[in-house]
Amino acid sequence: MDYANWSDPLVAFVPATVTESAKIVVAGGFGVGKTTLIGSVSEVAPLRMEEPITIDSVGVDDLRGTPEKTTTTVGMDFGRLHLADGQLVLYLFGLPGQLRFRPLWEDLAEGALGCLVLADTRDLDACHGALDLLEAQKTPYAVAVNTFPDAPAYEASELRQALALDAQTPLTTCDARDRTSSLYALITLTEYLTAPRAAAPLEPRP
After folding, report:
1. Where are the alpha helices (DSSP H) in 68-147?
2. Distance CA 40, CA 67 (A)
3. Do the beta carbons of residue 47 and residue 77 sit within 8 Å?
4. Top-confidence residue, 21 or 179
5. What share of the chain has pLDDT > 70, as a percent?
6. Any idea of the CA torsion for 102, 20, 200, 137, to the nearest 10 degrees?
7. Cβ atoms < 10 Å from Cβ of 184
Protein backbone atom coordinates (compact mmCIF):
# COMPACT_ATOMS: atom_id res chain seq x y z
CA MET A 1 0.00 0.00 0.00
CA ASP A 2 1.26 3.48 -0.87
CA TYR A 3 1.27 5.75 2.17
CA ALA A 4 2.54 8.81 0.32
CA ASN A 5 -0.96 10.32 0.31
CA TRP A 6 -1.31 10.76 4.03
CA SER A 7 -2.93 14.19 4.38
CA ASP A 8 -6.50 12.88 4.50
CA PRO A 9 -9.18 15.25 5.83
CA LEU A 10 -10.44 14.82 9.38
CA VAL A 11 -13.44 12.53 9.77
CA ALA A 12 -15.54 11.60 12.79
CA PHE A 13 -16.19 8.06 11.61
CA VAL A 14 -14.30 5.10 10.17
CA PRO A 15 -14.61 5.38 6.37
CA ALA A 16 -16.14 2.50 4.43
CA THR A 17 -12.92 2.44 2.40
CA VAL A 18 -10.92 1.04 5.32
CA THR A 19 -9.25 -2.26 4.50
CA GLU A 20 -6.57 -2.36 7.20
CA SER A 21 -6.22 -1.29 10.82
CA ALA A 22 -3.33 -1.25 13.24
CA LYS A 23 -2.75 -0.69 16.93
CA ILE A 24 0.12 1.72 17.54
CA VAL A 25 1.49 2.65 20.95
CA VAL A 26 3.18 5.96 21.72
CA ALA A 27 5.79 5.70 24.45
CA GLY A 28 8.51 7.79 26.06
CA GLY A 29 9.53 9.47 29.26
CA PHE A 30 7.53 11.64 31.62
CA GLY A 31 6.45 14.93 30.03
CA VAL A 32 7.90 14.13 26.61
CA GLY A 33 4.71 15.03 24.69
CA LYS A 34 2.82 11.77 24.15
CA THR A 35 -0.57 13.20 25.15
CA THR A 36 0.09 16.29 23.05
CA LEU A 37 1.01 14.28 19.95
CA ILE A 38 -2.05 12.06 20.10
CA GLY A 39 -4.25 15.09 20.66
CA SER A 40 -2.74 16.85 17.65
CA VAL A 41 -3.46 14.03 15.17
CA SER A 42 -6.61 12.32 16.47
CA GLU A 43 -9.72 12.69 14.32
CA VAL A 44 -11.92 12.13 17.35
CA ALA A 45 -11.79 13.76 20.76
CA PRO A 46 -8.88 11.90 22.40
CA LEU A 47 -9.52 9.87 25.52
CA ARG A 48 -7.22 11.10 28.28
CA MET A 49 -6.82 9.38 31.63
CA GLU A 50 -5.01 12.08 33.56
CA GLU A 51 -4.79 13.20 37.15
CA PRO A 52 -3.48 16.45 38.68
CA ILE A 53 0.16 16.43 39.74
CA THR A 54 0.26 16.69 43.53
CA ILE A 55 2.90 17.27 46.18
CA ASP A 56 3.41 13.50 46.28
CA SER A 57 5.21 13.82 42.94
CA VAL A 58 7.97 15.96 44.46
CA GLY A 59 11.23 14.05 44.26
CA VAL A 60 9.58 11.32 42.17
CA ASP A 61 8.60 12.93 38.86
CA ASP A 62 11.11 15.30 37.26
CA LEU A 63 9.35 18.55 36.34
CA ARG A 64 12.48 20.52 35.50
CA GLY A 65 11.87 20.34 31.75
CA THR A 66 8.12 20.99 32.00
CA PRO A 67 7.52 23.28 35.01
CA GLU A 68 4.11 24.29 33.63
CA LYS A 69 2.86 20.69 33.57
CA THR A 70 -0.11 20.25 35.95
CA THR A 71 -1.45 16.80 35.01
CA THR A 72 0.02 13.40 34.21
CA THR A 73 -1.28 10.33 32.42
CA VAL A 74 -2.08 7.55 34.88
CA GLY A 75 -3.88 5.16 32.54
CA MET A 76 -3.55 5.82 28.85
CA ASP A 77 -4.34 8.21 26.03
CA PHE A 78 -6.35 7.03 23.04
CA GLY A 79 -6.86 8.54 19.61
CA ARG A 80 -7.65 7.49 16.06
CA LEU A 81 -6.76 8.61 12.56
CA HIS A 82 -6.95 7.25 9.05
CA LEU A 83 -4.34 7.40 6.31
CA ALA A 84 -3.84 6.49 2.66
CA ASP A 85 -7.17 7.69 1.25
CA GLY A 86 -9.04 6.11 4.13
CA GLN A 87 -7.64 2.62 3.57
CA LEU A 88 -5.73 2.39 6.85
CA VAL A 89 -6.91 3.24 10.37
CA LEU A 90 -4.43 3.69 13.21
CA TYR A 91 -5.62 3.23 16.78
CA LEU A 92 -3.19 5.14 19.00
CA PHE A 93 -2.53 4.19 22.63
CA GLY A 94 -0.36 6.56 24.66
CA LEU A 95 1.51 5.02 27.57
CA PRO A 96 2.20 6.79 30.88
CA GLY A 97 5.79 7.95 31.11
CA GLN A 98 6.85 6.90 34.59
CA LEU A 99 8.75 3.64 35.02
CA ARG A 100 6.46 2.62 37.89
CA PHE A 101 3.74 2.04 35.28
CA ARG A 102 5.74 -0.68 33.49
CA PRO A 103 3.12 -3.43 34.18
CA LEU A 104 0.58 -1.19 32.42
CA TRP A 105 3.04 -0.61 29.57
CA GLU A 106 3.30 -4.35 29.06
CA ASP A 107 -0.47 -4.77 28.93
CA LEU A 108 -1.07 -1.86 26.56
CA ALA A 109 1.79 -2.80 24.23
CA GLU A 110 0.48 -6.34 23.77
CA GLY A 111 -0.78 -6.86 20.22
CA ALA A 112 0.62 -3.56 18.93
CA LEU A 113 1.94 -3.54 15.38
CA GLY A 114 4.58 -1.05 16.40
CA CYS A 115 5.51 1.86 18.64
CA LEU A 116 6.50 5.49 18.20
CA VAL A 117 8.94 6.40 20.97
CA LEU A 118 9.16 10.11 21.74
CA ALA A 119 12.49 11.38 23.04
CA ASP A 120 13.62 14.65 24.62
CA THR A 121 17.27 15.60 24.15
CA ARG A 122 17.27 17.23 27.58
CA ASP A 123 16.84 13.78 29.13
CA LEU A 124 17.45 10.97 26.66
CA ASP A 125 17.75 8.43 29.49
CA ALA A 126 14.03 8.86 30.21
CA CYS A 127 13.03 6.78 27.18
CA HIS A 128 15.36 3.85 27.88
CA GLY A 129 12.71 2.07 29.96
CA ALA A 130 10.31 2.05 27.02
CA LEU A 131 13.06 0.98 24.60
CA ASP A 132 14.04 -1.90 26.89
CA LEU A 133 10.42 -3.10 27.04
CA LEU A 134 9.99 -2.94 23.26
CA GLU A 135 13.21 -4.86 22.71
CA ALA A 136 12.10 -7.51 25.22
CA GLN A 137 8.69 -7.85 23.56
CA LYS A 138 10.22 -7.68 20.06
CA THR A 139 7.90 -4.82 19.14
CA PRO A 140 9.18 -2.80 16.14
CA TYR A 141 9.53 0.91 16.80
CA ALA A 142 10.68 4.26 15.46
CA VAL A 143 12.07 7.13 17.53
CA ALA A 144 10.95 10.74 17.11
CA VAL A 145 12.80 13.51 18.93
CA ASN A 146 10.26 16.07 20.14
CA THR A 147 11.90 19.43 19.45
CA PHE A 148 11.34 21.48 22.59
CA PRO A 149 12.42 25.12 22.09
CA ASP A 150 15.16 25.02 24.73
CA ALA A 151 16.38 21.50 24.03
CA PRO A 152 19.92 20.95 22.71
CA ALA A 153 20.31 19.65 19.16
CA TYR A 154 22.54 16.70 18.30
CA GLU A 155 23.59 14.94 15.14
CA ALA A 156 21.59 11.84 14.23
CA SER A 157 24.67 9.68 14.73
CA GLU A 158 25.08 10.98 18.29
CA LEU A 159 21.41 10.30 19.08
CA ARG A 160 21.64 6.79 17.68
CA GLN A 161 24.65 6.06 19.82
CA ALA A 162 23.08 7.53 22.96
CA LEU A 163 19.88 5.50 22.44
CA ALA A 164 21.70 2.37 21.21
CA LEU A 165 19.54 2.24 18.07
CA ASP A 166 20.05 -0.32 15.34
CA ALA A 167 20.96 1.10 11.95
CA GLN A 168 17.55 0.21 10.48
CA THR A 169 15.51 1.80 13.28
CA PRO A 170 13.93 5.02 11.95
CA LEU A 171 14.95 8.22 13.71
CA THR A 172 13.18 11.48 12.98
CA THR A 173 12.15 14.72 14.66
CA CYS A 174 8.75 16.24 15.31
CA ASP A 175 6.90 19.01 17.09
CA ALA A 176 4.20 17.16 19.01
CA ARG A 177 2.02 20.28 19.01
CA ASP A 178 1.90 20.40 15.21
CA ARG A 179 -0.42 18.00 13.38
CA THR A 180 1.58 17.84 10.16
CA SER A 181 4.85 17.23 12.00
CA SER A 182 3.29 14.56 14.21
CA LEU A 183 1.68 12.87 11.21
CA TYR A 184 5.06 12.70 9.50
CA ALA A 185 6.53 10.91 12.51
CA LEU A 186 3.69 8.37 12.50
CA ILE A 187 4.03 7.84 8.76
CA THR A 188 7.76 7.24 9.18
CA LEU A 189 6.86 4.47 11.62
CA THR A 190 4.07 3.10 9.39
CA GLU A 191 6.29 2.91 6.33
CA TYR A 192 8.95 1.11 8.37
CA LEU A 193 6.40 -1.40 9.65
CA THR A 194 5.04 -2.15 6.18
CA ALA A 195 8.35 -2.24 4.32
CA PRO A 196 9.35 -5.71 3.07
CA ARG A 197 12.16 -7.25 5.05
CA ALA A 198 14.61 -9.94 4.09
CA ALA A 199 14.02 -13.25 5.82
CA ALA A 200 16.49 -14.18 8.53
CA PRO A 201 19.10 -16.66 7.29
CA LEU A 202 18.43 -20.26 8.22
CA GLU A 203 20.87 -21.86 10.61
CA PRO A 204 22.77 -24.80 9.11
CA ARG A 205 21.43 -28.19 10.06
CA PRO A 206 23.69 -30.16 12.40
Report:
1. 102-109, 128-137
2. 21
3. yes
4. 179
5. 71
6. 10
7. 17
